[in-house]
Amino acid sequence: MTEAAFRTLYNEFRDPLFRFGYRLTGSAEVAEDLVHDCFVGLFRGGFDERRGSPKTYLYGAMRNLCHKHFRDTGRETTENAETDVATASGPLDAVLARETAAAVQSAVQALPALQREALILFEYEELTLEEISRIVEADVGAVKSRLHRAREALRKSLAMKEAAR
Amino acid sequence: MTDRDEELRATLKHWKAPLPSTEVDAKIWSEFNRSRPPRRRWLAVSAGVLLVAGAAALWHTGPKRQRSVRIETRVDAAGFRAMPNGTITVIEAGGNK
């Protein structure tokens, strides 16, 4: 792989892969390590153009690294770092937004891994069902089903958190 | 996507991910560059060795420079006097007159 080709892919996918890893593992530090491993795998010849697009390859590699991390550590980490929230207009809005963001984060991270990855790829990374099915190596029907179950679980979880406020 | 899905999507967007640190860039690029130089370094060293060898070969096989040699003869002519009516005698090689 030429330096120019690597640079293009790096600039395009560094942030999305980090976001994906961060949301899947719950740790920025772990996500950075996995982004590193992902790109090292890329320039060491891990990508074969005949097997798909660089996008699905990179997300797939990142996903596999996250699952390997879960297997190696035996647990899914969640940092207590302050949650980044959408910009709020006033102090009260900021508090509410922070609470909502924290509730969303904990609800998403409580999902089973397969549902969580499908939800993150669809809702946050805005990938198509076909792309997700290639990344998670499952058919589109299975991805749809995981997404449906993830949404239902999130609705319940967020409603319970809302009621508890 | 149903309205419920849209509503959930809007709620999910409250959770923003941070950006990766610049350390990860430095680490990846340093590893990328480390993975490539062996060939380039080998080429650079080979080119350097060839250049030096070529220059040395040219130096040894090129036309030799003529050394300018200066021969200086000093004759002490002090006390020399020409012989009056002197004759010149040629002595040939072998001693025959």
Tell me what you see in this structure.
The complex is a heterodimer of chains A (165) and B (97). Chain A has 165 residues and is mainly α. Chain A folds into two domains: 1-80, Orthogonal Bundle (Rna Polymerase Sigma Factor, Chain: A); 82-165, Winged helix-like DNA-binding domain superfamily/Winged helix DNA-binding domain (Arc Repressor Mutant, subunit A). Chain A has helices at residues 3-25, 28-46, 54-73, 91-109, 113-124, 129-136, 140-164; one strand at residues 84-85. In chain A, helix 5 (113-124) crosses helix 7 (140-164) and helix 6 (129-136) crosses helix 7 (140-164). With 97 residues, chain B is mainly alpha-helical. Chain B is 51% helix and 2% strand. Chain B contains three helices and one strand. The longest helix of chain B has 25 residues, at 37-61. Chain B is rod-shaped, with a radius of gyration of 46 Å. In chain B, 7% of the residues are buried. The mean pLDDT of chain B is 80. The chains are: A mainly alpha (165), B mainly alpha (97). At the A-B interface, helix 1, helix 2, strand 1, helix 4 and helix 7 of A face helix 1, strand 1 and helix 2 of B. Strand 1 (84-85) of chain A pairs antiparallel with strand 1 (15-16) of chain B.
